[in-house]
Amino acid sequence: MTGPATPGTIHRTHPARSTRLPGTSDSQPVGPSETRSVGPLALRSYYFFFFAVVGCSIPFINLFFEKTLHFSGKQIGSITAVRLMMAVVVPPIWGILSDKLRGPRFLMAIGLGTSAVALILFGAVALYWQALLLMGIFAFFNTPVFPLIDSVTFGYLTKHPRTTYGRIRCAGSVGFIFASICMWLILSKTTNLRVAFYVAAASSVVALSLVSKLPAVKVKPRRFIAKRAVRLFLQRDLLILGLCGFIGRAAMEGYYSFFSNYLHGQGFDDRLIGLVWALGPIAETPFIFYSERLIGALGIRGVYGLGLAAIVVRLFILSLQPSAAIILMSQALHALTLGALLVGGLIYVDGRTPDDLRASAQSIFAASMLGAGGVVGSLMAGAFVDAVGVPAMMRFHSLIAAAAFIVFVLFFRPRPPLERE
Questions:
Q1: What gap in Å lies between CA 202 and CA 178, rounded to an integer?
Q2: Could you tell me the CATH superfamily of domain 34-210+225-411?
Q3: Which regions of the chain are under pLDDT 50?
């Protein structure tokens, strides 16, 4: 990224940028103006339906395991851990393969198609080992898709800086909200939670149909991509960012894994649980939309620090088992607990990453934060839920987040973004 920059500030103005796509030769010119107008629409549509899959499945899957299949907290935690373990191992491999192939769209199509089949098969699951195996298959093909679409988006933005990542990515939050409303309407007619998987599969198929319309962002192939990508994250700023993201996500995984079960225990109707979840994306949408401006104003240190502090406050409030009104109001903190950490982290990583490492870097960051942190958090949460219950588990996880906040404040020192040609 060109132009003067203070540490932690992301600039999206590129007055001297070339008219070629990153990594392409002079024989591969940027598409016509209609391509520039279609690009954001295709990306937003994709994010919408991809996160509709999440909105249909995540709020209900662990509730389905508990209420319909009668799994224990440890069993639910271990199934969630399998999904998140794949988020550790698979995205970096797929990201590196995407960089080698000089384009991620083929891999994304495979991932979405297989995910749709796996979601349909979830409707026939009856035993713990079946759920464990199917979750592993689903996660192997689904978890790498998110960092790949982010790499496409950031690659597109390097040539079209008039829009921003936040303005495109917020369509995903809208998709989650839309899916939650649809599930509320559907569950008003039936109590069968298996229907959530079928709606999620349909959304995955729609997202698959949009892959061919995504911008074709390519990079130059270079050797030793894996080694260079790992070495990039050994730099102090990215190492601390990734470590604190890991710890913060581990703390928040208690919420992600057991919030629906928590709401059920607090007397919420199952039909309303999806709508309660939707309050989080509603709060995060404006934050994500203006994320670049907020990072420009507060710096990545301020935004990321606020995100970690919000996790501490949010989990502690829930651990007190407050009134329904306070639980609903606490969902507003989702703007920081997800938006500040994930979106802020992705923007910062993109600014510190060479063009040819974009998919690899995004995948490694997602693997360390969403994957590894989630695995540790889900296993801890499952054990605590069986031993002391969900509220006490959330209080313990708030202490974990407090440790991450202290480490970040004491040791993180941001660096300016790279200069790009």
A1: 14
A2: MFS general substrate transporter like domains (1.20.1250.20)
A3: 1-36, 220-224
